[in-house]
Amino acid sequence: MPTDWSNERVLVTGGSGMIGANLVARLIALGSRPFVLARDPARGGRLTQHADRIVPLPCDIADAAAVSDAVAAADPRVVFHLASSYFNPPDLPAASHMRINALGAVNLCEAVKHIEGVRLVNANTCAIYAGGSRLTENAAVEPQSMYGVTKAAAGSVMRHYGRDHGLGVVELRLFTPFGPWESTRRLIPSTILSALAGRDMRIGDGRQQRDFVYMDDVVEALLLAAGATASGVAINIGGGVGRSIRDVACRVLELMGDPVGLVVGNQPARPDEIWEISADIGAAERLLGWRPRVAFDDGLSRTIDWFRQHPAFAAAAA
Fold it and tell me: Which residues contact 229 (CB under 8 A, 6 or more apart)?
């Protein structure tokens, strides 16, 4: 990775989301003053504490002219592309997924394709896979949701521009990140907040398996990808272990002293449910020198502590 981030012109798209907020905080700690492209940089309050140490670029990623203007203002040498539609709950129309993910990737690539030596790190998702245990990057791309379909398209777009325009593109296929600033609608935060509120936690049958990876490790992978010699490659980033939703919720409650119960089976499964998914992370070690450093229980404990210390975020998101 660059040895002096204070001298790097860095653009982060989707900087007001969970991953973006954690990445921006790390870049600032490394001396950078990143340009942050987001439709509403103040959304969720994730960047409020960094307002004087970032350059906000309010912009809809699906607006080609606005993206072009934002990129021209930033003139970046490193771009972290995190802007994305959301998956949970799956209530966005297909056209919204397409315009944010696929069209957004086209707009960004068109805007940066003339910048000599630019490095583009694309945060993609394991939802491009159909599912399976310890998947390698050669696993079939068979997305089960429109979110996954359009994220797969975005990855193809960026690899195409990388080949045709000499962009240094690395795609990280993130499995299930968790940690500070995560949406309160998702499993781990909602379990923590249910426990803090004295409410039983309610889930579906809980058999679904996911591969969880703590945010500090995700941020480290992004930074390493920015300096990797490999280009035009896709790399899985996960913990390498599939864990059932039920077991994860139980473990969160155990770490909190079991203050409430876990009610299982009261929610129907989604029609596009992926029942089992975990990553083979060998390529990440070979190409980036990356392995997760934060043990799962340690990540859960840190996340529990973070939500206890940030009640205003939970209240605003409710």
Answer: none
> Domain 187-209+242-275+304-317 carries which CATH code?
3.90.25.10
Q: Are 280 and 134 in contact (CB under 8 A)?
A: yes
Amino acid at 62: A
d(CA 77, CA 118): 5
Comparing CA positions, the residue from 30, 36, 26, 25 lying closest to residue 8 is 30
* DSSP letter, residue 232: S
- Superfamily of domain 5-178+214-240+277-294 in CATH is NAD(P)-binding Rossmann-like Domain (3.40.50.720)
pTM of the model: 0.95
Listed in order, the ranges of the chain carrying CATH 3.90.25.10 are: 187-209+242-275+304-317
pLDDT tens digits along 160-187: 999 999 999 999 999 999 999 999 999 9
